[in-house]
Every structure is written in structure tokens, then in C-alpha cells.
Amino acid sequence: MKNITKYQFKKILVLGLAKSGVTAASLLHKLGAFVTVNDKRPIAENPEAQGLLDQGIKVICGDHPIELLDEGFELIVKNPGIPYSIPLVAGAVDRGIPVITEVELAYEISEAEFIGITGTNGKTTTTTLIFEMLKQGERNPIIAGNIGTVASEVAQAANQDNKIVIELSSFQLMGIKKFRPRIAIITNLYEAHLDYHGGLAEYWEAKANITKNQTEEDFLIVNAEQPQLLEAVKDTKAAIIPFSTKAYLEEGCSVRDGKILFNGEEVMAIADLALPGEHNLENVLSSIAAVKLLGVSNEAVKEIMTTFTGVKHRTQFVAEVHGRKFYNDSKATNILATRSALKAFNNPIVLLAGGLDRGNGFDDLIPDLSNVKAIITFGQTAGKMEETAEKAGIKVIKRVDNVGTAVPAAFECSDEGDVILLSPACASWDQYKTFEVRGDIFIDAVHKLI
Fold first, then answer.
1. Which of 303, 288, 396 is nearest to 351 (CA)?
2. Residue limits of the Mur ligase C-terminal domain (predicted)?
3. Is there a smaller number of Cβ atoms within 10 Å at the N or the C end of the chain?
4. Please, which residues bridge with residue 372 across strands?
5. 73 with 19, same domain?
6. Per residue in 137-151, is it b (16+ CB within 10 Å) or e — as a string?
7. Would you call 160 helix, strand, or coil by DSSP?
8. In which region does residue 354 sit, left (phi positive, over 0), alpha (psi from -120 to 50) or beta (all else)?
9. CA distance 45 to 2
10. Cα(139)–Cα(117) distance, rounded to whole angstroms?
11. Would you say residue 6 lies in a domain?
12. What is the dihedral of CA 90, 427, 120, 129, to 10 degrees?
């Protein structure tokens, strides 16, 4: 950990707790800042806040009072999930108070280089693949961020021999000032999180922030099949490394004659990949590009790619029960992710879908519902899902209360050889705290059938 003094004696507000807020508050306290923590949960229901009190950190709980801005804070470290539109954050921006996320702190103290991965879909799988291949190649990786340990906690322990592999959301990337990854990846860009960002332009700009501080010494890996993505990063100073599942590229990572190639050199056969689906081929190519830039051997790449079958909640195979294969794709919180999952299977599918209503319809799913023989709906969007299923000509449409009851209902509608797929196309927050909770309930319900 770098010994930095820039925060010593500064008044800093940490807004929102959870893991990143707790770690940020403790780190800033250690660095000599005068830290105040503000969290919406009441103190009696907030063990994290109570733990910070025990460290001697000032804690204000229950709401986000605008009056806090009168206390002279020089910096706000904001939980990524808190929108910039709330009065406290909007007021801070109006007053010129810098607002960052915990990732920025991690970068400032880290002795290790970062490999940052963002995009609308595929972030978690790509991040995990890079971590596993770097580990196989003995490059001392540490996984951080949304699927690992909090970044600023990892950064405190990392040294120059490590590589910090971090998945980054648009929410996190809006709050960076100097964060500069050695290698950045944008897997793809589609319409998402517009309820948070307010528009597509702001969302894409947030994603492009991953490269805004990169220099000519750095690398940016991007999807060559997306003109809108290439346009979003046109001002980057980094060396662009493209990947493509459709065209051969002399430079970058691509496919030809059933082979995966990096800079024209054969790495492995596509047929040997353990991950199903074209969407996963995109993840494979972007992750191979990253590790080849770091000198990982083809043998290490093949060892992981021929055995890695997926990340939990991302088209995860759960079990085969009486000839039906169950897959957990709870991470599919938008239409595009569900479309990708549906394309991964040739078997008849019983689809479990529904969740938080963000105001959109689901007719974009129709072209990919041809293999869906039945749909089980739940959550706020159940009615909208049913309307789309009727338009697609699906004969069996059934509404249930939740994911737990959806599993036996799906089994009743299925036959041997079918795939039963949880791929909701919606966020989970109408019924479940996280998509992980939703996926775990699905897994438990499947195991009850065995």
C-alpha cells in the first residue's frame, strides 16, 4: 500500500455503507482524515455503522440530511448505488465538492496495476476468466470489486507483483478522477440502467470513463462489432485491441476456421471451449486478449478454457433432473442478457422470467423465443411477459408467486430433453434483495426436485 498523505486532516463524508462504504471509511480514518459516515438505515438496524462507531468514526444514520453540506466537507465518497439525483449529492455537486467512489481510493493507494472490466453484459464472466487464466499463468492476480473483495481492501494488501482484476459498473465509473487501469475492457454497450443515468448518452459516457485516464502505454480491449462502442472511445490515448466473433483480425483477438487467434497466432479451437453460447465467445475473446497482453501461455489459456463452465448465476448449470437440465441465469437483469442465454440452447426451453418493472416492454425477446415451449412468469412484470409470450405464439403461459414456486411449475410443463432456464430479463428488487438471492432460491428449489 502506498503511503499517501493527501487525506490527512481533511473532512470527508462517506455516503452509504455496505462493504465498500465500511472499508472506505476505515481506510480514510487510517489515513488521518476526519471521517463522517452517513447511511439511510437506522443505527439500531445497522451493525456496520455500529462497528465504525467503535473505531471512533462519526456516524449519522436514518436519512441523508441536506444540512450535512454545511459542515465543510472537502470530499464525498459515495456508495455507487446512491443516485446523483438525491438532494445531498446534487447539492454537493452544485457546491463544487468532489464526489468519488471507493474505486478511486483503491487506485490511489495501490502498488499493483489494475485490469478493469466493464460493459453492459459479460463483465463477471470476463473478469473471472481473466483471473483464472492469470492464476494458471502464475501472474499473482487478485480479484476485486463487484465479484470479489472490496477494491480498497485488496489494494491495501497488494504489491507490485500483483495484478488487480476488477469488474466495474457504470455507477462506479461515474465517480473516478484519476483511476487508470493498465488494461481496460469494454465487453459491449447496450441500453441499460437508464432509470439511474437518465439517458443513454450519460450511461455510455460513464462506461467510457474506464479509459479516460489511460495513456499510450496502456491498452483498451473493445468489441469491434459495435460501432457505437468504438465511437464512445474514439478519444482514448490507449492502444486499442479489438476482438471479433465474426471477422478475422490481424491484430487483436478473433476467430477463423474454428480457431481462436490472437494477433494471427492460433491459441485454441473453439470446439474445445467449455462455455456455451456466442455471447460467451465474446467473453472468451476479450479475456484471452487481456492475458496474452500479459504474456500468459496458450497452454495456461487452454487449461482454463476447456474446464471453466461458468460463473454462479450466469447461465450456470445446476442439475439434471429426470432428463431436464436446469440453468440458473439470474444475473440476466435485462433483455439483452436473456436473449443471449436463449441463443445458447438448441433444446426446447421452459423459461422462467419476470421481476422489477422499469417501464419497458419485452417484445425485443420475441425473435429469440422460437425454442421456448412454455413460460413461467412472476414479479411486477409478469403481465408484460405474458403479453410478449402470447405474441410469440407460446402455448403454455403460467403465472406464479415467485421463483421458488416457478421451479415445480416449470417441471410440470417440461419433458425429457428440455432445458429449464431461469433468465428473468429484469432486476430482482421487486421481490429479492439481489439477483444472487433470487438465483440461490432457484437452486434450492431445483435440488428439492432431486
1. 396
2. 313-426
3. C
4. 349
5. yes
6. bebebbbbbbbbbbb
7. coil
8. left
9. 35
10. 18
11. no
12. 120
Residue pLDDT, tens place only, 239-253: 999 999 999 999 999
Does some domain include residue 169? yes
Tell me the three state secondary structure of residue 11.
Answer: strand
What percent of the chain has pLDDT above 90? 82
CB distance 69 to 91 below 8 Å:
yes
∠ CA 343-118-232 to the nearest 5 degrees?
Answer: 95
What is the length of the chain?
Answer: 450
**Of 73, 100, 127, which residue constitutes the final position of a domain?**
100
Same domain, 253 and 145: yes
CB atoms within 10 A of CB 45: 10
Query: How many Cβ atoms are within 10 Å of 266's Cβ, its own excluded?
Result: 12
Classify residue 160: in a domain, yes or no: yes
**Residues that constitute the known binding site for ATP:** 119-125
Task: Kindly indicate the confidence band of residue 192, based on its pLDDT and cuts at 50, 70 and 90.
Answer: low
Burial (0-12, 13-18, 19+ Cβ within 10 Å), 371: middle
Q: What is the pTM of this model?
A: 0.79
* Residues sharing a CB contact under 8 Å with residue 358, sequence separation 6 or more, in sequence order: 194, 195, 426, 427
What pLDDT is stored for residue 195 in this prediction?
59
Residue that finishes a domain, picked among 274, 305, 336: 305
Cα(69)–Cα(74) distance, integer angstroms: 10
d(CA 267, CA 279): 19
Same domain, 247 and 113: yes
The pLDDT tens digits for 338-349 are 998 998 898 999
Q: Rounded to whole angstroms, how far apart are CA atoms 134 and 45?
A: 40
Helix 298-305 with 123-136: angle, nearest 10 deg: 130
Which whole-number Å values give the CA distances from 394 to 25, 233, 327, 383, 412, in the listed order? 52, 41, 20, 14, 16
> For 169-174, what is the mean pLDDT?
89
CA 316 to chain centre: 16
Q: Kindly report the backbone phi and psi dihedral angles of residue 185, in degrees, each rounded to the nearest multiple of 5, phi listed first.
A: -130, 130
- Better-predicted residue by pLDDT, 185 or 344: 185
pLDDT level of residue 78 (50, 70, 90 thresholds): very high
